[in-house]
Amino acid sequence: MLKEKTGIGPGLLFMVTYVTMFGFGVVQAPYVAAKYIGANGYWGLVLAFALSLLMIKLIQIMGQAFPGKSLVQLLSIGFGAWAGKILSLLYLFFVLVLLVWASRSISEFISVYFLPRTPMWCSVLLFLIVSTFAAHQGIEGLSRLAAFIFPLTLLFSLLPILFSFQGFQLDHIRPILFIEGERFAFGALQLYYPFIPLILIPMLFPYLTKRENMPRVLMGASALAFIMILLVIVSGLGNYGALGVLRYSWLTFDLIRKANIPFVLQTFGLFFAATWLSQALAGTGFIYYILAEGVAQVTHALNYKWFTLILFLPAFYMTLWFPSVVDTRMILPGLRIAGIALSFFLPLIIVGSFILRRGGEKRAS
After folding, report:
1. The predicted structure's pLDDT at residue 94
2. What is the pLDDT of residues 119-143, one digit of tens each?
């Protein structure tokens, strides 16, 4: 494996983290909130954000315990060559599923809204070619791309979301303070999925130039993604009500399409779609890069650039095999729970291994 000779600072880390979380998480959030919690489903995202802060703390502990070591390297250090490789392969399979999940969802959107007469395989092929090109640029190129699109995409994401509150009715989001325990907890676990990309960050440990700033950067990116997605959930529930939200496959876009500036702009739909798609492409490229880098570290054979090409066909066929948006709703709840379980499992066992090892060294001394 040839290590990438580059580094990214706090600003670039912030951009690539936010873009990935927003692009991955904003589309289905209102539907998930309405389905699993109801009219006050926005509270589920609040709890999910609190869980993301716990994840950031675990990431900080890992980074301090083994500076400059990626997650794959940490697993080998903590559990030995064979057990560490098995856990690394489990992690990389999860990243592959994450890549396929994001690619299929976004390709469905492209087919429905932009290319309705184009076969799905063409949309998937086009999307993965762009994602592969982005991943091939490496983490510095990806993060600079995220930084380049960040100002405009933030502006043209926030404005449509704010103007979508034109038909907002307070009664649709009541009762505000009535929370059902089990339903609320399960809904929060389902709504954690926008923050799942945080588990990708430990793979960047060797490339971070100012590691002491990493926790604040990740908290800032998570907070911004949380605010943007929360606004979408509240607007969606306030405009359509919980039952109304469940009638739409792509509620976020239908919500934004009706947002307008009277006598100036008929709809924000095209602006929002373009900005979201830009962020989704950059975010998916980041996921693809992490997959290729991880495989390179496990195999010790080629560098990540080669693996972005080698993994293209498996990712393409798996994305085509992944069910359509309607069928996906039947399997996504399980995927979300599996995602949060694995996201916390690997950092917890690494941190636990570090604590046990440090305790053993103290007793030995």
Report:
1. 92
2. 888 888 988 999 999 999 889 889 9
Q: How far apart are CA 49 and CA 158, in angstroms?
A: 19
CA 216 – CA 148 distance, rounded (Å)? 21
Measured distance CA(195)–CA(200) in Å, rounded: 10
* CB count in 10 Å sphere of residue 327: 10
Q: Which of 142, 155, 117 is nearest to 197 (CA)?
A: 142
The burial class, CB within 10 Å (0-12 / 13-18 / 19+), for 321 is exposed
Beta bridge partners of 8: 208
Q: Which amino acid is at 95?
A: V
The pLDDT tens digits for 326-354 are 556 677 788 888 888 888 998 888 888 88
Q: Which CA distances in Å does 321 have to 51, 68, 100, 299, 325?
A: 32, 37, 9, 26, 12
Give kind and range of the element (H or E) at residue 150: helix 138-163
Mean pLDDT of 49-77: 90
Tell me the C-alpha distance between 297 and 311, whole Å.
15
How far apart (Å, rounded) are the C-alpha atoms in residues 120 and 108? 8
Instruction: Tell me the C-alpha distance between 232 and 226, whole Å.
Output: 10
DSSP string, 248-296: -SSHHHHHHHT--BTTTBS-SHHHHHHHHHHHHHHHHHHHHHHHHHHHH
From residue 198, give the alpha-carbon distance in Å to each of 21, 165, 202.
Answer: 8, 30, 8
DSSP conformation class of 196: G
- Res 6 pLDDT > 60: yes
